[in-house]
């Protein structure tokens, strides 16, 4: 069945109607770069007070859960805090109603849900690299139109572990890591990294705090450790998917996530996390 033929009877009206004056229209150049190279950078999506408050709220959530870098802890413990929108109202607003939802509509389509929110931090001292991977390898969604948006909370460069991408690698489609997923998923590291044969084509993507890099779900990317002596590298990771996207590894059940724009054919998506919208829907 073509996506256009899917009947999506469950829609929303209140979410997306709140005007934060955050419209973000991608340029033709950004859309072309995303299509051809699998990524694009958006400059200064956040700045000033808004960036400072969001960063502060994220850092408080991180420290209350994890503390600083611990060389004896697992990669997961040192690098990732899931469902950050449950812990920060500012992240919730940014994830559900910020400009990245507009970006998702332009790149994914008119029907969009949130698929993941997490912090991926490399605090000073965390010198562990993160190997080549596709985000759709970690949770194979179909259709494979999901995007990952990485909002830099600090300036990120080669020294403190910015992202590296392999431009155009998304065009080869999904790399099958399911064999390893079953065993590796049991380990805290969840390392699904793959070898790439054109490593020399990789390029770093340095970002200023407040910039966002948007990745196609098949784009190969990685990062080095944070080798800086004084600078953290903190990222807010938000993933958006088609509202009817399903988890291939989970009997094609719908990926649970809040409906942010348009409509869905799944009632469980239409009502998912509605409590997080109450402030805006009633206010
Ligand atoms: O935190 C990093 O350095 C890498 C993050 C990343 O690529 C991911 O979580 O998919």
How does this model look, in words?
This protein has 9 helices and 16 strands. Mean pLDDT is 89; it is low at 14-20. Strands 2, 3, 4, 7, 10, 12 and 15 form a 7-stranded antiparallel β-sheet that branches. A 4-stranded antiparallel β-sheet has the order 5-11-8-9. With 283 residues, the protein is of the alpha+beta class. The protein has one domain (10-281): Jelly Rolls. The longest helix is centred in the N-terminal third of the chain and has 18 residues, at 48-65. It has helices at 28-37, 48-65, 75-79, 89-97, 99-107, 135-138, 178-184, 267-270, 278-282, and strands at 10-11, 39-42, 80-82, 112-122, 130-133, 141-142, 147-152, 163-165, 203-205, 212-216, 221-223, 233-242, 246-247, 253-254, 259-261, 263-264. Bound molecules: 2-oxoglutaric acid. The site of 2-oxoglutaric acid has 9 residues, from strand 4, strand 11 and strand 12.
């Amino acid at each position: 069945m073509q996506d256009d033929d899917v009947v999506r009877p469950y829609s929303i009206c209140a979410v997306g109607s709140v005007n934060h004056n955050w419209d973000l229209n991608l340029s033709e150049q950004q859309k072309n770069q995303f299509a051809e190279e699998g990524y694009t950078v958006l400059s200064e999506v956040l700045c000033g007070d808004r960036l400072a408050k969001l960063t502060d709220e994220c850092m408080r959530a991180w420290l209350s859960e994890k503390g600083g870098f611990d060389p004896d802890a697992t990669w997961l413990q040192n690098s990732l805090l899931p469902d950050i929108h449950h812990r920060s109202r500012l992240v919730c607003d940014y994830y559900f109603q910020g400009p990245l939802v507009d970006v998702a509509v332009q790149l994914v389509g008119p029907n969009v849900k949130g698929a993941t929110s997490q912090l991926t931090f490399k605090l000073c001292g965390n010198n562990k690299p993160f190997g080549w991977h596709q985000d759709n390898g970690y949770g194979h969604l179909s259709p494979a139109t999901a995007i990952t948006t990485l909002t830099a909370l600090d300036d990120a460069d080669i020294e403190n572990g910015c992202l590296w991408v392999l431009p155009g690698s998304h065009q080869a489609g999904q790399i099958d890591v399911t064999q390893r997923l079953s065993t590796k998923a049991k380990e805290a590291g969840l390392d699904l990294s793959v070898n790439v044969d054109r490593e020399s084509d990789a390029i770093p993507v340095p970002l200023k705090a407040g910039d966002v890099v948007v990745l196609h779900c098949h784009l190969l990317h990685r990062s080095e450790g944070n080798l800086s002596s004084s600078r953290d590298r903190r990222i807010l990771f938000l993933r958006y998917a088609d509202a009817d996207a399903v988890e291939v590894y989970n009997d094609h059940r719908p990926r649970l996530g809040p409906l942010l724009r348009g409509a869905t054919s799944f009632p469980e998506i239409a009502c998912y996390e509605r409590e997080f919208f109450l402030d805006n829907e009633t206010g």
